[in-house]
Amino acid sequence: MTTWLAILGTALSCYLVKLLGLSVPAGVLERPLVRRLAALVPIALLAALTGIQTFGDGRALTLDARAAGVAAAAAALLLRAPFLVVVAAAVVVTALVRALG
Amino acid sequence: MTPPSAQDPSRLPPSHVADDGSRAVVRDALGVGIAVGASGFAFGVTAVGAGLGPAQACAMSLLVFTGASQFALVGALGSGGNPLAAVAGAFFLGVRNAFYGLRLSELLGLPRWVRPLAAQMVIDETTAVALPQPDRRRARIGFLVTGLTLYVLWNLTTLLGALGAGALGDPRRLGLDAAGPAVFLALLAPMLHGTRERLVAGSAVVIGLGLLPVLPAGVPVLAAGLAAPIVLALYGLRGRGARADGAPVRDAQDERGGQEKPEARENAREKPDARENAPDGPDARENVPDGPDARENAPDGPDAREKEAHR
């Protein structure tokens, strides 16, 4: 039940924020400070999520096969691989390291 | 939504060069829609692996339809996070769509009654395809074709992933727990074009990992979001000094480039920074035109293109 509420809350808030952008007269949200924050906040969140989902195990920090997988994804990104290849590289390398370990 | 486009439209032949512009934009849009839409499979598997039911995974792709928020929510719920913190994290990731909407609203000129329908498709990929189009007609085509292709495929592949997850066995054995962070990294990479962006990302990782053991699940991510205002404040302090010297003000350039992709705008926004910072040092005069700093911080060259290509 909680999960459904979280899903509906996310769906509603994410939809409203999309609609807000389309409906608000241009200029209202176009303050430079707001826009710069809007550009940087996703960077902070994505970076933290990448770190936590790579090294986090519950509330502990750990180094396991995921780190190798994410490193492979980073290498794929540097090689300009398409999105799907980046994700596949992470999954395959993580699975391989687990199988070998 | 958000998985980045595997096929960056900027790498394809520009639509306005082709004789039939609408065919080119349809091709670009389909390329992005299909490549990214297929990655809904990873979401479906990840969601079920995190303990959600297939119906919940599908409801998310149907109703939320913004990939980073979806992955963030299932990740937070799967790790036993506080649901409110989980929703807040997903919401903050979705806020950037409002800024895409602002740009698209001018460009597409949608009638009032269409907006509630179009809103669901205001995401990274549709924006990336629509903004560079040379006219309103092609921007509308690009937005619509990308959005519909992506919506249909993303939901189909979510369903397949969610149903197939059980047959696949333990998602950890298959390495699927690395799909989430890989998706985040792939989304993040093209945004890291400037010193400030990298500083924000680095601080956020340190804050997030540092707070993980001491705060309830989901909260460390939100706390890491504070890296953005903190870094901005630090830059603001430096920038104010530079502006007093008569350096160009960044905001003036913000208003230009109405037809650029969002990333291109981010890049454009970085340029004045190099100039703002230059007058700090003793070599200020020398550095202003094209010192090493300016080069580094002006990601307009082919390098920026390359980075964008990862989207």
Automatic annotation (TrEMBL), chain A:
What are the protein's UniProt keywords? Membrane, Transmembrane, Transmembrane helix
Q: One Pfam family this chain carries?
A: AzlD
Task: Tell me where the transmembrane regions lie.
Answer: 37-56, 68-97
Q: Which domain of life is it from?
A: Bacteria
What is the protein's name according to its record?
Branched-chain amino acid transporter AzlD
UniProtKB/TrEMBL annotation, chain B:
| UniProt KW Membrane keyword | yes
Q: Where is the composition biased (Basic and acidic residues)?
A: 251-311
Provide a GO CC annotation, any one.
plasma membrane
Keywords, A to Z, come to: Cell membrane, Membrane, Transmembrane, Transmembrane helix, Transport
Cite the residue spans of the region called Disordered: 242-311
| Localization terms from the record | Cell membrane
Q: How does it sit in the membrane?
A: Multi-pass membrane protein
Q: Which InterPro entries match?
A: Brnchd-chn_aa_trnsp_permease
Question: So where does this one cross the membrane?
Answer: 29-52, 141-168, 174-192, 199-215
BP GO annotations: L-valine transmembrane transport
Indicate the principal place this protein occupies in or around the cell: membrane
Instruction: Tell me where on the tree of life, at the top rank, the source sits.
Output: Bacteria
**Recorded family membership:** Belongs to the AzlC family.
Name of the protein in question: Branched-chain amino acid ABC transporter permease
Taxonomy, top ranks, is:
Bacteria, Bacillati, Actinomycetota, Actinomycetes, Kitasatosporales
